[in-house]
Amino acid sequence: MNLVPHTDSRVAVGKCIVFLTAGLLCISGCNNPKSISTEQLVEFMKAGPIRPKVDVDCLVKARVPTDPYTVVVGDVLELHMPAVVGTVDLISVASLETMQPHLCRISKEGKITLPIVGEVYVTGMDLSEIESAIVDVYYPKYVVDRPSIIARIAKYHTQSVSVIGAVEQPGVYTLQSDELSLVVLLMKAGGITDDGAGVIRIQNGTKSKITEPLVLPVKRMNMPFADVALSKGDVIEVESLDPKVFTVVGLVNHPGAFPYPPTSKYTLMQALAFAGGANQVANPKYVRVYRQKADDSIIDATFRIRGANVCDASNITIKPGDVVSVEHTLETDTRLLFAQVFRVTFLLGGQTDFFD
């Protein structure tokens, strides 16, 4: 059985579909979006771009709670200890009551040098552990009674780190070894600028210390943040969270996000050009722009793509963070259907003389 329809039948079906599609196209012209009012335009132009503020309280709380400080190479210790100068016998035991300060710097090998006993390894120990270690090397070999040792940090070793970008006072900072923390550095640099910032990148020379950039906590937004230990030579770049792109979606040839340099100003028509222009088959007449307001709500406005009116795309300036959407309407969908009908008809019979 031959299931392929007769050529005349195919042409008749094609004509019916064409007339039906043409009718829909005429009807759809009455369903285009309404033009934006003056009041709506004023409200729209006041919105965006939003400059998020860093939640300073949350930032400070993000600092990782530290255990007792452990000494590092270069720290200077001050030890208060009995005046031990040799093996102590019963006659000189009274001298143990005399406390004498002893200053010593932790060497690059991680050791300090003490009277009589020589070098003692202390790097990575906290003060109580150092005190116990010193007691152990003196007692009972050199003293009859356990001596009382008190240790403190006389001078912390310092390291230089740099911070650039969206902070009040960018530059090179010298931090003590107990201050080598990202949060401490940000606070010393005067905090984040009023324009807001959110992304942090940490570089050590040419090698990144972290695989993913940190995101600062921003007010009214649930953004994670973790403090990070710093080391000598680190460069911290604080990038603005203010969006530097605009996005074009919908009935365009190349939808996507496009950079918006701070010194540039683009019209809505130029934004469409970045996306390769509107779909020629759908031939849309309107474009909608979505923009964020100061209260985090979204406002949108619809503009004509072509024309010389003040509310047409050639006269509307977009802002960083805008989402430009060339949306489907009944008219554009009808045009796309009409184009599809032609393609289907050609596949059925290759007929082009519908109206002969």
Structural summary, described in words:
- The chain has helices spanning 7-28, 38-46, 56-61, 127-138, 182-188, 268-274, 330-349, and strands at 76-82, 99-105, 111-114, 118-121, 150-155, 158-165, 171-176, 199-204, 207-208, 214-215, 234-239, 245-250, 256-259, 286-292, 298-304, 323-326.
- With 356 residues, the chain is α+β, with helices and mostly antiparallel strands.
- The protein has three domains: 7-52 and 244-349, Outer membrane lipoprotein wza fold like; 56-67 and 157-239, Roll (Outer membrane lipoprotein wza fold like), CATH 3.10.560; 76-155, wza like domain (wza like fold).
- Strands 6, 7, 8, 9, 10 and 11 form a six-stranded mixed β-sheet that branches.
- Helix 1 (7-28) runs antiparallel to helix 7 (330-349).
- The radius of gyration is 37 Å and the shape is rod-shaped.
- The relative contact order is 0.16.
- Mean pLDDT is 78; it is low at 1-6, 85-96 and 351-356.
Explain the layout of strands and helices.
Layout: H1 7-28, H2 38-46, H3 56-61, E1 76-82, E2 99-105, E3 111-114, E4 118-121, H4 127-138, E5 150-155, E6 158-165, E7 171-176, H5 182-188, E8 199-204, E9 207-208, E10 214-215, E11 234-239, E12 245-250, E13 256-259, H6 268-274, E14 286-292, E15 298-304, E16 323-326, H7 330-349
Parallel strand pairs: 6-11, 12-16
Antiparallel strand pairs: 1-2, 1-5, 3-4, 6-7, 8-9, 8-10, 8-11, 12-13, 14-15, 14-16
Helix pairs in contact: 1-7
